[in-house]
Design brief:
The chain has a single domain, classed as Spore Coat Polysaccharide Biosynthesis Protein SpsA, Chain A, CATH 3.90.550.10. By secondary structure, it is an alpha/beta fold. The chain is built from ten helices and 13 strands. The protein is 31% helix and 26% strand.
C-alpha cells in the first residue's frame, strides 16, 4: 500500500460569511496573526509526510498561487536586512513542496470539489484539509495522527470531535462502534449530513480532515446531489462505510472554525497568546 504523499485543498468557495473582506481576497488567505489560513494547512500536511499540495481553486483565487511562489522583487528588497527572516517559513514550504492547481468551475459541494482534484491525485490514497478548519495540537499535528490510523487500518479516515447536540445541523455526523479496545477510534456504521438534532445519530461531528482512498472518486461520480443540491462527501463516504471501509478518529488537539467570525477571532486570540 502506498503512503500518503499528496494533500488536497478544496479552496474554491466564496467565503460569503466574511464579506466584504472576501469580495476580492480568497477566504483561505485570511491571516491568523502573520500567516494565511492555507499556509497553516500546508505546514500541517508537510509535517504529516505530504510533499505534494493539490489545490482546487476558482475564479478570484490567484492570490493563493502567488503566495506559494517566489516574489523576486520582494526578496530583492529585503535581502540582507533585518526583515529577511519574515519569509523563512514560506521559503521552506516552497523549497520542500510541489504545488499543483486546478479550477472548480461550478460550486457543487465538497464532494464535487474533491472529484475535481482527481487529475491532480491519480490512483493513490490522499489527505484532504479544509483550510478554514484550523487545528492546533501539542505534540503531533492532527493529520499526522490520522496517517498513523490509516497505516493501521488501510481505509478512509475522517477526523471527528464531540459537538453540542444542538449544533449537529452544521456538520456531517457519524455513528459507529469503538474498535480494538480504543477510546478514540470508531468503525463507522452510519453518516448523516447536517441532521436536525432530533435526527442526529450521535454528537460526533466530522471536521475538515480526511484521508481517502482513490476508489472514492468512482463513488462520488455516482453520488446524487444531497443537502442544498450539492454533492456531499458524507454521502459518498456512507457507501464505503456500509462496506466497513471508514474509520472515524477523535483527534487530540483543538480545532477552530475559521469559516465563522467567532471561530476566526478565537483562533487569533489563541495563536497570539502562544
Amino acid at each position: 500500500m502506498k503512503t500518503i504523499k499528496k494533500c488536497l485543498f478544496p479552496a474554491a468557495g466564496y467565503g460569503t460569511r466574511f464579506l466584504p473582506a472576501t469580495k476580492s481576497m480568497p477566504k483561505e488567505m485570511l491571516p491568523i496573526m502573520t500567516k494565511p489560513l492555507i499556509q497553516y494547512g500546508v505546514e500541517e500536511a508537510l509535517e504529516s509526510g505530504c510533499d505534494t499540495m493539490a489545490i482546487v481553486t476558482g475564479r478570484g483565487k490567484r492570490a493563493i498561487e502567488d503566495h506559494f511562489d517566489i516574489s523576486y522583487e520582494l526578496e530583492h528588497q529585503i535581502n540582507g536586512t533585518a526583515k529577511e527572516h519574515y519569509l523563512t517559513e514560506i521559503r521552506q514550504l516552497i523549497d520542500n513542496c510541489t504545488f499543483t492547481y486546478t479550477r472548480q468551475v461550478e460550486m457543487k459541494g465538497l464532494g464535487h470539489a474533491i472529484l475535481t482534484g482527481k487529475s491532480l491525485i491519480g490512483d493513490e490514497p490522499f489527505a484532504v484539509i479544509l483550510a478554514d478548519d484550523l487545528c492546533d495540537s501539542a505534540d503531533e499535528s492532527v493529520l499526522s495522527q490520522m496517517v498513523k490510523v490509516y497505516e493501521k487500518y488501510r481505509c478512509c479516515v475522517v477526523a471527528i470531535e464531540e459537538v453540542p447536540k444542538a449544533d449537529t445541523s452544521k456538520y456531517g455526523v457519524i455513528s459507529g462502534h469503538l474498535v480494538d479496545g480504543s477510546i478514540d477510534t470508531y468503525r463507522v456504521e452510519n453518516m448523516v449530513e447536517k441532521p436536525d438534532p432530533k435526527d442526529a445519530p450521535s454528537n460526533l461531528a466530522i471536521i475538515g480532515r480526511y484521508i481517502l482512498t482513490p476508489d472514492i472518486f468512482n463513488i462520488i461520480e455516482k453520488t446524487k446531489p444531497g443537502i442544498g443540491g450539492e454533492i456531499q462527501i458524507t454521502d459518498a463516504l456512507l457507501e464505503m462505510a456500509k462496506q466497513g471501509k471508514v474509520i472515524a478518529y477523535k483527534f487530540k488537539g483543538k480545532r477552530f472554525d475559521c469559516g465563522s467570525v467567532d471561530g476566526f477571532v478565537e483562533a487569533i486570540n489563541h495563536f497570539y497568546k502562544k
